[in-house]
User: Fold these one by one.
Assistant:
Number 1:
Amino acid sequence: MVNQGWLVGVETHGRSARRFLLAPVVVLGVVAAVFAASPAAAQGPAANATIVVDSTADGADQNLGDGVCATSSGACTLRAAIAQANANRGPDRIEFSIGGSGVKTIDLTDELPTIDDSTGGLVIDGYTQPGASPNTATHGSNAVIRIEVDGTNQPNAFVIQSAENTIRGLSIYGAIDNIELRNEAADGNRIIGNFLGTNAAGTTRRGDVGVHAVLGPDRNMIGTPQLADRNVIGFVKQGVRIDHGETSENRIQNNVIGLSPDGTLDIGGSIGIDIQWWTWGNLVGGSGPGEANVVGGSGSGIDLSHKATGNLVLNNLVGTTLDGTSATNTTRNGRGLIVKDDAQGNYFADNVVAGATNDYAIWHKHNYSGGNTFVNNRVGVTAGGNDIGSNDSGMILRGHDDVYVGNIIANMSGPQAVLISNTSVVDGATFEPAEQTVNNAVRQGTYYNNSASKAIVFGSECCPHPNEDTPDVDGLGPGQVNGNSTCAGCEVEVYVSGSVAADGTLTPGTGTTGLTWIGTVTADGSGAYSMASPLLTAGSRVNVKAITPNGESSDFMNSSPTIPAQGSGLVANPDQPNPVAPLPPSPPLPTPYAPTTFDCSHANGTLSWDDAGAPEYYVFATSNGTESYLGGHSATILAVSGADSYRVEHWVTGWVTNAVCDGPGAGTGGGSFDCSYATGTLSWTDAGAPEYYVFANTGGTETYLGGHTATSLTAPGADSYRIEHWITGQVTNATCNGPGPDAAPSFDCSVTGSTLSWDDAGAAAYYVFAVNGGTETYLGGHSTTSLTVAPADTYRVEHWITGQATNATCGGAGGVTFDCSVSNGTLSWTDVGAPEYYVFASTGGTESYLGGHSATSLAVAGADSYRIEHWITGQVTNAVCNG
């Protein structure tokens, strides 16, 4: 039998230990190979560390910056792990191995430490907890979440203020903001595969906001097209909120927002996706496979407001079931797509909107919003053309200079399919609009099975619309329609009854089938028009509408004349339909954040940097923690005076890209950071750093002596010392000689019977090893000074109280031979004191497992040979005998 799992090891640093996961191992039988190694010397603030959370407690780290995740009780909590990751240099990873089965809940007593390590990103991966697994379902989510973070009564659970971090595989709920991406440095983060604002079962809504990006974070990814990266987001106020400070080019893709993982429960609140306050270029959904969001169960689905500009909303399922083929009162939103409060230049395309339980599926609030584009959206109908119904109306249009092309509005039960309104009263509140609803071109649509008498109707309030009336139809017959009474030079759109397939193919129809655009001609100077088309077939209904050169659309009747078998009132030489007008171009999709390589170097008074194609590079010098601006330069080389470090930035990619490199030191002489050793005290220059990391070197081995806020330290003797700090944003070192190593204190051990004893050197832990036949086996760390042991050739005890290993070695009674034999159908073996022996039989080269046994004999059938193993020494010991 083969089992696969993870082993937990312990990396010992001085008196403390850091838990970490080893790579997957294959386990033969019921036991696994045990990793045991001599405790490593402390390395200080580590780079590329993996930290393993092993507790649901919420205590803080007891010694921040020592590279060891440990509270005062010795546990590694999520709070302590984040704090240590912030203190470490370079990328870090937090994994989970909390004992016991089922969901483990971490109850926050305060907001977690802000993730703000600018030296490298942090990955927090909840799927490393045993029993957890990411989503594999095509629709919805079958992810198994085993780590919950309960932020109830906290303003935030997680706050991210640095770049390229990842949070995945967690349930985070209860806080005002469950995850907040804050400020301009929080770029390129990935929020993937989580349950946000809901518990691990996805059955509740807890907390105001699932993910909040605010005050300038760019190019973050909330979900990706990968199935495993799909988030499920519940909320009270907003599922995803993006606002303020030019927060731009973020991607929201492949999420289930406002619905439970299986789509059967409403866990939404006010607004599913809320984009507002000057934010621009954000992408909701996308044009590729697996990029669409499902947004349901909310007061509003996707809401753009307050000067949100140039955002893209593409291919989303708004108010539908998870697969987009139907809708229920659970999945529908009060309103679907929202434009309000001066939202400008946004682009909505190919979304499916299941209709609204409140009033309008597409809802415009203020008529000073403008320049927005709606293309090929389907309201009340699936992407494949099936009826998903609506509880109310299709669209209310307030605003200016909007473009509507190729949208389908069908199956509306409310009073309007499309209402064009100038009202200054919205939801009972009176507004003073900056301008009227004007210049809105509603083109090339499809309208059917709506209860309203007109497909497009104007509100009765305020001012008459300059192009309100539908043109007349004077002549009609198979293949031709003509009329007049429209404006000179207007576009005249011709519609016929019929059905439209998902690929856009029209099948003409009769009776109550919808009205679908088939072509456009231009009226002459008198307002007359005539058009020929083979789609004008006898028995079909026909209707027309007009659009002025400024983009004003007329109203549009549902009731329409039927094309007779023989026409009357037709004119000669009718126009052919204009070629299908190209759809408005989509703005370019924002690209995911991808750091580019951009480096600099200093040599002999000259600073050089890579040519990234920028028109100008901005150069800064840092000395003693103070950064000075050296100007903008079009070249890639600059003569500089001495400094601790240099930073070069450019903006050719549309956001800041930096190169940082060492200098020779402040001033022309360099080397402004020094250390010295005298009479047991190590001292160094005060460079203004919040912490200094001290190392001692003896015999070529460097030992970490901790992080210190002072500028001196009582230090053990060593060959040399090194002190580093990071005030310049990169490592700065001082190195000085020491007196040589101190004489090691006496430290001995002895064996009496089965008891190993050793001197008390005042260490917090002693690490014990047994040697048999040249093989050393680790017997664990012990706080006492004696241990009951099995026989061995020798023993070794080490401690690290001096900052480096000190050993005692003593002889044992010799190892016990472990043998087996077979006689008269009975397999017997030596009793070495193991609690269990694992027995295997081998026949014809195939080994079979005969179980674990606490006795030292077993009745067996015939076999070629037998193998017995035990693990009392901490590693496998075998006895093999013939059958």
Number 2:
Amino acid sequence: MALLRRIFTLGRRSSHDREVEAELREHMRMCIDDQVANGMSRKEAKRHARLMLGNPTAMRERVTAEDTALGLDSLLRDVRYALRGFRKSPGFALVAILTLALGIGANTAVFELLDAVRLRSLPIHNPAELSELQIKGGNDGMGLNEGPYSKFTIPMWQEIRRHHDPFSGVFAWRTSEATLGRHNEGRHVSALEVSGEFFNVLGVVPWRGRLIEPQDEASCEVSKVVASYAFWKSQMGSIPITPNTSIYVEGRLVQVLGVTPPAFFGLIVGDRFELAYPTCTPSNPRRDDFMMSVMGRLKPDWNIGRASAYLDALSPGLFDSTAPTGYSSAAINRYKSFRLEAVEAGSGVSTLRKAYDASLRLLLAITGLVLLIACANLANLMLARASVRQRAVAIRIALGASRGRLLQQMFIESGLLALCGALLGIAIAQPLSRLLVASMSTERDTIQVAISTDWRVLLFAATVAAVTCVIFGTFPAMRSAKVDPISAIRSGERGVTGNRERFSIQRLMVVMQMAISMVLLMAALLFVRSYRNLATLDPGVRESGMTVGFFDFSTLNIKPENRAAFTRQLVDDVRAIPGVQNAGATTHVLLNGGSWSHSVHVGSIEGSSRFTYVSPSYLATVGIPILRGRGFTKEDTVNSPFVLIVNQAFIRKFLGGGPALGQLIHVMPEPDYPERHYLIVGTIPDTKYNDLRADAEPMAFVPIDQLPVEAQRPGAAIMIASNDSTAAIDAIRHTIGVRYPLISLNFADFEQGIRDNLVGDRMMAMLAGFFGILAALLVVVGLYGVLSYFLAQRRNEIGIRIALGARRGQVIGLVLRDTAGMLAAGLGLGILLTLGVGRAASAMLFGLKAWDPATMSLAVLLLAAVSFVASWIPARKAANLDPVAALRTE
């Protein structure tokens, strides 16, 4: 009861103190009376009682320390004391909290994005049971691969559908695009093609209507769709879903079955589908077209290891029964050696993890270093503040306060600053995270990640705040607790702190700041220069004024043998439109991410080369010159000799760099591509193929009229050159729309597409540059603050020097030499750190080494200039000191 009574009196400390003091006085009186009764005089009895009981203040502190409830009250009093101190120094508190908020907020923002991309589970029922089926090590590039999530052929999916003992249910899905609206007036929306079990296995319940079920897999034409919640709200106006609800998709009116719940975005982290439609099984599906992903929900008594063992045992029969035809025996044997496995898929799938995982981890390390610099700055501020308060601390020690009690007070102050900084940092982490997502998005590919502050983010922020508190609060607290009370009281507030030996920790902090800043400046310069190298790289083709037009004429039902002629007519129609300088059709858009290869045999050399089928005007349109020989003409048809134009990499690989014109090239047979012999009629320079970073690959161009009939597709990609892309696109839409109203059109800016492929490099350049500049500014603030404090403590010494004849330049030189010493130590340590951590960034650089001498020299010069600027102002202030005024204060 006494403990509860004391807890309830925490808010009435003064009255409780009076009670304790009354008890101590009563105890003192009883001791005096006992000694008087034993024959002592009252004066001697009082002295004896005081010696026995000790200092009354110390006695009260011991009583407080032994009382649990009063320990809480002591904590509250320390908090109040710290808050009063912050009110007296609002500038210090504001700078400290904002610095911590920026550092903790930046770290939390990067972690928040990592959490959303890597750690968070899908918004489905029991995501831990979801598994993805894969071929161990991939399919080795065999057959046709339609994207990063295309891992199974339809025959393979059919076998898995029949044999899925470890799973309570399995489903197949793939990403797709659907044209919303009426033909050439429509726009492309992201879509999912899913098997009937998709939503049932995932446990997704409809928000409106119903979702796709197995019986919906009847037709191979899109006749039923499910809308996402966002699509239903924005594009359908939240209309009621009835059996008669329909929208135009692929130029046809299709039924909308239902709407998915708001939280469900699909299975791809960073992407959201708008429509989903049921898949179908063609009567004779291709056995080498890897187009589907397959997932399943594990049964309660199965785990990933046991499921993988089952799939491994199932693999020989599965791959033997689904083996494709038309390949060499070696390729077939390689296919039959594939083995299946199951992997956890509760957090979904994403190419973001592969594309940005290293970048985000590196950014987290960079923001961590910035936070370290901020902590060093705050530690110096706390040290300076503690030095000013040494006299007050010494008086408290002299009055009986324990050093542990003082440490507690200092750590509470640090903890309050860290707590306020963490709370503000969490608040700004959300907009910073969204800014990061926006920097990763492009006009063509918008990344959509659900950024939210979950328990992992809060735990991370709390951990960072705790570590930060320890880092910047430990040294000041220990320094204050070690003060000698007698020396501090005798010398006032300057005598103790004026000792240069006590500046060692501050100097160490500045050296650490400079070393870390050297690393950050080096990283910033490397990433900026790397991005510049990529942005200014000549890909070997025309970039500006180029538009890629995608013409889908599947609704025209043109026979395969007539598609080449129709594509040629389309190119002629586009070239004749006013404003169009030139146009050419291609089966592969350079630097667009796709690939197309054939196996080539030249003499004794075998290998693969990139193949692209183009119209005669294509090379002139994209600006690739003919170095030797001739270009393609309209006479190069399927009935004329088969001809090739090859690049220099092809000549080096297959012809040893020798003469190419007139050489006969043997192309090995593949499905849809018969065995052929081609004659090289022209050569071109090397150009980039898929990636600006990659070296030039062997490339061969073939007349599009010589594309095998089996490989003809009901669509064409046409490169369009013009001075005004917007006007040209409008004219093409009008002309083609009038002439061929059933054709679907879509356009993309070629140059923007190339720049979009550099979005990761651009993000790293911008963010590394920002944090590098921030680190330099923190060094300026930290060095300026430390030097100003040093010089304030040495004011009398400098005054004596000036009085004895020291010139202004000598005083400035004294300060600059001090700076130069710290700079030399910081640069040396920074260079060692840069060389040590450079390997982590080397794989992300283009045209540079992590230890590039020019970049390192520039970083050294920048940091030296920053340090000079930070030290020049306090140095001039010291040189202009009035010696009389300085000595008068002694």
